[in-house]
Amino acid sequence: MPTHPLFLLLALGVAAAAAWTDWRTGTIPNRLTFGALLLAPVAHFAAAILLGHSHVALEAAGMSIFGAATCGIVPFLMYRSGGMAGGDVKLLAALGAICLPTLGIETQVFGLFFATFYAAGVLAYQGKLLSTAKNAAALALNPFRKKENKRTVPKELMIQMRFGPSVLAGVVAAAAMQVWGQ
Fold first, then answer.
1. Cβ neighbours of residue 105 under 8 Å, at least 6 residues apart?
2. Whole-angstrom Cα distance, residue 166 to residue 134?
3. Could you give the number of structural domains in the chain?
4. What letter does residue 146 receive in the DSSP assignment?
5. Cα 15 from Cα 20, distance rounded (Å)
6. Cα angle: 8, vertex 11, 16; to 5 degrees
7. Is residue 66 part of a domain?
8. What SS3 state is found at 181?
9. What are phi and psi of 146, to 5 degrees?
10. DSSP conformation class of 52
11. Domain range for residue 91?
12. How far apart are CA 92 and CA 178, in angstroms?
C-alpha cells in the first residue's frame, strides 16, 4: 500500500527540520520526534476516515505504530552499542510511523547508504579511510571472538557525524522512488 502524498510531505518536513537542527546543533529536538511519533497514528486514523476508508482506520493507525517499531528496532540496537545517537533513533522511528513500515525501511536504507558514502568521502579526504576500514573489520569480527580476544577502538579514534542530513536525503530518495516508480 503506497503512502499517501500528504504523508510523504509530512515526512519530508520532519526530516528537513531534523536535518537542519542536527546540522546546526548536533541534536534533533525531542518535540519534533516525539510529536511526530504521537501524531502519526492519529493522522493515519483520521486520514482513513476522511478518505472514506473508515473500515481500515484502526488498521492504518496500527500500521503506523508497527512502522515506528519496525523502523526503530535496529537503530535502537545500534544506539545501545554506541553506533548511533538517540535523536537519530527517534527520528527513524517517527519516520516509520509517518511513512508506514515499507517506506520507512526504504527511507532508513537510503539514509544509511548516503551516510556511508558521505563518511567514506570525509575519511578519504582526511587520509583515514583505510585505517578506519581495518578497525571496522576488526570490530565486525568481535561476535566471533572469545571475550579476552575482542578488539576495542579507543574513543579518540571514533568519529561522529550528523546523520540528520543523510536521513533527509533518504526520505527524498524513497519518496521519489514511490512517486516516480509507479
1. 70, 71, 96
2. 24
3. 1
4. -
5. 8
6. 125
7. yes
8. coil
9. -70, 155
10. T
11. 5-112+163-180
12. 18
Residue 117 belongs to a domain: no
Cβ neighbours of residue 77 under 8 Å, at least 6 residues apart? none
Q: If we measure between CA atoms, which residue out of 13, 68, 12, 8 comes closest to residue 38? A: 68
DSSP states along 99-125: HHHHHHHHHHHHHHHHHHHHHHHHHHH
Q: In this structure, is residue 64 part of a structural domain?
A: yes
Q: Are 166 and 99 in contact (CB under 8 A)?
A: no
> Would 31 be classed as within a structural domain?
yes
pLDDT tens, the chain, 182 aa long: 567 889 999 999 999 999 999 999 999 999 999 999 999 999 999 999 999 999 999 999 999 999 999 999 999 998 987 788 999 999 999 999 999 999 999 999 999 999 999 989 988 998 888 888 888 887 788 788 888 887 777 777 677 789 999 999 999 999 999 988 86
